């Protein structure tokens, strides 16, 4: 679901509202940094280190309070107040409160300003489309420049003086943003209020823990900055933000061969170790660099879980919780001295102690995540990590691709000959059977092409027996499973697919070798290249001309399967298994874009068909297909409905020799009085597949009548041409 903000695009795309979004968010972030620094400073002045930590924790918690207001209450409020008025009003009030901190130099006033800033942030975030980090990074950059300039002129302590002018600057930015939003008539659809994009940003606990460690790293920089002063703090914040942004954008390229839950767990463990590292080092640039790396790990983990690659408000809240915990544990004042050897010792201050506690917690949580987030636990993790930088799809695609140029005929790899071989792939419940029927109807009705609809496992009589062994009860052990799927495929290709292709038919198979690579390879965690080799050998290298991957979220697919009835043991595999399967299909498609089409299968079945049909049209146009003629002379006895009924349905029979491509013909229902075309339909599929649902039947009916109208028009044209001659 993409949010639609009809009257504005405050996502930073440009224009008045884009500028408004940048100013509002940038001003808000700057104000938050100023208030945090002031809270720490005043706390420190009043009661030393412990008071400083507590005052910073309290001020951050107060700023977070408005986020606890239920979404429904906010929605009601926004329905009453026009959005642009709310934004402009909040910007003015919060801006004035933050500016006043330069005059009212007391910690309670900072708390008031933090509360008003929190209200402002809640309203502005609800009104902005993007959750981009650019404004935050720009503010941190400004903060670095401001404090560094002050420190260069007046020494390290003077860095804090910059706060007196950074506070009004943040207010000016916020108020200017509010004015722009007002002028641009910034609106907000009430039902989008408080929603992060597509509701997808809820972090799982391991991601939340990683992001919390980023917060801990950043907040601790207030103390660990040592000689760096305010500029050191700002530099740390900036690097952490840049790290997060980098992690969000590069996550997909990080260890592409590693399952995403395992990646998230490794990010958490690494972030934990680095947080401990911040406690050990004292030098400001090392603290900043480590914070940047932890930020990168947090961004990588967040994007590994959230395809939107936008930090959500809940992620910010997690960072806040991590930071708050670090402050509170540090305020406990735990300290000590660790003798590493006779020469090396480590003096642990309260912040180091807090970072040590949180880092160890992070590492332990990461190990738990490694054990529970991936259903394979630690099985094969070493091999997977070793091969993790090789994109799985590419190596396997290379293995299957090498079959393309085998030899000429029976084992000709990717054919250059007749027919069109279409494979439908995707998870269980993605809609392959539904779409196979719709594509067959389209090919038959629109293009007059004889179509064989088949499936794996179970496309032949032998295959039906293998399907039973594979899918009934608990199935068979993994290696036997891989071999039996390959055996079914080998038989299927030799006895049904190749003969039909040689006869110029279009063959639509519901699953092919990619299913083995995805289910046995990625799902079962077997050697994917071996599985691909097995299928390549079994099929003598026959690849589909085009593979359509029906991509649907495994949760939605599970819902569809649930509606359908009892599930087999593969369908009942855990969600993570199905996520790996989905990812492998996508990897395979990405590695060979000329031969794959990925279709979002979450929409209405008719829309999905329309997308597939559009993608297949060039393949159909380029294929050497037998259009509208009988597949072969009927063999064997044919039952007739009347003495002059000579219509046939042609079905390939089990061949008796490798080049035997005979078919069996059986009568079909006439669709119109002059319907003399024949179709090739593989019987087991139609016998065993589910009945077409009424809504799909309507759609097929529409296709049929459209095709009938086109046929009549063509006929009229042909007659006219003959008359003219
Ligand atoms: N686009 C769609 N939207 C909603 N429901 C759908 C859609 N396509 C198919 N369905 C329904 O989802 C269920 C599964 O569809 P279908 O059998 O076509 O999927 P499949 O990919 O062949 O599943 P499997 O691999 O498990 O055989 C059926 O009940 C079907 O009616
Ligand atoms: C071809 C093939 C299939 N599978 C799995 C995938 C499904 O769970 C079942 C087939 O059921 P469907 O309802 O016909 O889709 O078998 C597999 O694991 N490996 C394969 O090669």
TrEMBL record:
From start to end residue, where is composition biased (Basic and acidic residues)? 638-649, 675-713
Q: Where does ATP bind?
A: 426-433
The source's domain of life comes to Bacteria
Q: Where is the signal peptide?
A: none
Q: What is its EC number?
A: 2.7.4.9
Note the InterPro entries from the entry: P-loop_NTPase, Thymidylate_kin-like_dom, Thymidylate_kin_CS, Thymidylate_kinase
Identify the keywords attached in UniProt to this record, alphabetized. Answer: ATP-binding, Kinase, Membrane, Nucleotide biosynthesis, Nucleotide-binding, Transferase, Transmembrane, Transmembrane helix
- List every stretch annotated Disordered: 627-725
Provide the transmembrane region boundaries.
21-42, 54-74, 86-102, 108-125, 137-159, 165-184, 204-223, 229-251, 263-281, 287-304, 316-334, 354-373
Gene Ontology biological process terms in this record? dTDP biosynthetic process; dTTP biosynthetic process; dUDP biosynthetic process
Which SUPFAM superfamilies does the entry link to?
Answer: P-loop containing nucleoside triphosphate hydrolases
Q: Which residues form a coiled coil?
A: none
Keyword Calcium in the entry? The reply is no
Q: Which reaction does it catalyse?
A: dTMP + ATP = dTDP + ADP
UniProt-listed NCBIfam families: DTMP_kinase
* Name of the featured protein: Thymidylate kinase
Q: Which species is this record about?
A: Spelaeicoccus albus
Name the lineage.
Bacteria, Bacillati, Actinomycetota, Actinomycetes, Micrococcales
What gene name does this entry carry? tmk
């Amino acid at each position: 679901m993409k949010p639609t903000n009809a009257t504005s695009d405050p996502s930073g795309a440009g224009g008045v509202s884009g500028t408004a979004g940048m100013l509002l968010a940038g001003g808000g972030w700057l104000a938050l940094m100023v208030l945090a620094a002031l809270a720490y400073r005043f706390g420190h002045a009043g009661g030393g280190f412990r008071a400083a930590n507590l005052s910073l924790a309290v001020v951050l918690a107060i700023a977070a309070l408005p986020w606890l207001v239920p979404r429904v209450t906010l929605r009601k409020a926004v329905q009453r107040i026009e959005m642009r008025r709310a934004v402009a009003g909040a910007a003015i009030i919060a801006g004035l409160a933050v500016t006043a901190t330069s005059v009212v130099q007391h910690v309670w006033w900072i708390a008031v300003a933090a509360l008003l800033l929190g209200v402002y942030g809640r309203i502005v975030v609800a009104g902005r489309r993007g959750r981009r980090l650019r404004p935050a990074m720009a503010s941190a950059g400004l903060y670095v420049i401001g404090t560094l300039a002050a420190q260069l002129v007046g020494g390290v302590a003077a860095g804090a003086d910059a706060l007196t002018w950074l506070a009004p600057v943040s207010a000016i930015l916020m108020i200017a943003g509010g004015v722009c939003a007002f002028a641009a008539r910034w609106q907000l659809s009430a039902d989008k209020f408080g929603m992060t994009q597509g509701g997808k940003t809820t972090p799982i606990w391991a991601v939340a823990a990683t992001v919390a460690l980023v917060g801990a790293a950043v907040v601790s920089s207030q103390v660990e900055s040592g000689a760096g002063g305010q500029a050191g703090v700002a530099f740390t914040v900036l690097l952490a933000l840049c790290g997060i942004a980098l992690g969000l954008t590069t996550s997909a390229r990080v260890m592409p061969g590693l399952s995403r839950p395992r990646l998230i767990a490794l990010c958490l463990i690494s972030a934990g170790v680095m947080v401990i590292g911040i406690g050990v080092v004292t030098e400001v640039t090392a603290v900043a660099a480590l914070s940047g790396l932890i930020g990168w790990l947090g961004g990588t983990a967040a994007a590994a879980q959230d395809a939107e690659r936008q930090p959500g408000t809940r992620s910010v809240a997690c960072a806040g919780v991590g930071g708050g915990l670090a402050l509170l544990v540090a305020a406990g004042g735990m300290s000590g001295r660790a003798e590493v050897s006779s020469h090396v010792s480590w003096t642990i201050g309260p912040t180091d102690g807090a970072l040590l506690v949180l880092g160890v917690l992070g590492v332990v949580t990461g190990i738990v995540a490694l054990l529970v987030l991936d259903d394979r636990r630690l099985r094969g993790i070493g091999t997977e990590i070793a091969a993790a930088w090789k994109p799985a799809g590419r190596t396997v695609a290379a293995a299957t691709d090498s079959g393309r140029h085998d030899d000429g005929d029976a084992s000709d790899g990717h054919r250059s000959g007749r027919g069109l071989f279409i494979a439908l792939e995707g998870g269980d419940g993605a809609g392959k059977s539904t779409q196979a029927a719709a594509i067959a109807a389209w090919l038959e009705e629109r293009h007059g092409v004889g179509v064989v609809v088949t499936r794996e496992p179970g496309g032949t009589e032998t295959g039906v027996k293998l399907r039973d062994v594979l899918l009934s009860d608990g199935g068979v052990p993994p290696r036997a499973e891989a071999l039996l799927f390959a055996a079914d495929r080998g038989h299927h290709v030799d006895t049904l697919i190749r003969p039909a292709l040689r006869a110029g038919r279009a063959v639509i198979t519901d699953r092919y070798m990619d299913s083995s690579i995805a289910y046995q390879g990625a799902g079962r965690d077997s050697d994917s290249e071996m599985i691909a080799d097995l299928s390549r050998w079994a099929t003598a290298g026959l690849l589909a001309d085009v593979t359509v991957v029906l991509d649907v979220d495994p949760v939605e697919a599970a819902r569809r399967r649930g509606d359908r009835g009892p599930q087999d043991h593969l369908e009942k595999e855990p969600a993570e298994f199905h996520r790996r399967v989905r990812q492998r299909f996508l990897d395979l498609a990405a590695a060979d874009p000329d031969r794959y089409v990925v279709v979002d299968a979450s929409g209405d079945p008719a829309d999905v068909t329309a997308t597939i049909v559009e993608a297949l049209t060039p393949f159909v146009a380029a294929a050497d297909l037998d259009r509208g003629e009988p597949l072969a002379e009927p063999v064997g006895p044919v039952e007739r409905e009347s003495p002059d009924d000579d219509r046939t349905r042609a079905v390939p029979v089990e061949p008796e020799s490798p080049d035997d491509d005979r078919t069996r013909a059986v009568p079909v229902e006439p669709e119109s009085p002059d319907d003399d075309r024949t179709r090739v339909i593989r019987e087991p599929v139609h016998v065993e597949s589910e009945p077409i649902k009424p809504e799909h039947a309507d759609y097929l009916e529409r296709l049929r009548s459209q095709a009938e109208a086109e046929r009549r028009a063509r006929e009229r044209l042909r007659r006219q041409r003959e008359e003219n001659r």
